[in-house]
Amino acid sequence: MALLIAATPAQASTASVAPLILIDGTWAVARLSSGQTMPTGVRAVLNLVGGRITGTTGCNSVMGRYSHGGSNLVFQGLASTRKFCAGAAGTTETLVLKSLSGAQKVAVYGPTGQKSMRISGTGGTLYLVKQK
């Protein structure tokens, strides 16, 4: 499955379509596509480093590759582990994976040390905060 993440010109005026160095890093999901904050005790984190994506969806691990060119970020070969996820962890995982499917847009906001990222598309929106 390939996911395309692109920023529109309208976003560029209010958000930074960051070069790869700003996208690379560890990003914790702060809010889900439903607009809700992360449930207590559930953590979803995406690590984007050197063309590889790893992380967790709230329950299972996710891994794959990504490439970056201009304002596009393309995910390739995404896979995840398959353990059963009940309750809040399962709901979170469903929303994270749904948000990452299909064509996407990305915007990076904030000064160095306080970066946040929004990934949005037909499957919903994820709001992430860069970890130190």
UniProtKB/TrEMBL annotation:
Residues 22-111 form the DUF306 domain. InterPro entries: DUF306_Meta_HslJ (IPR005184), HslJ-like_sf (IPR038670), Hsp_HslJ-like (IPR053147). Pfam families: META. Gene3D superfamilies: 2.40.128.270. This is DUF306 domain-containing protein. It comes from Deinococcus ruber.
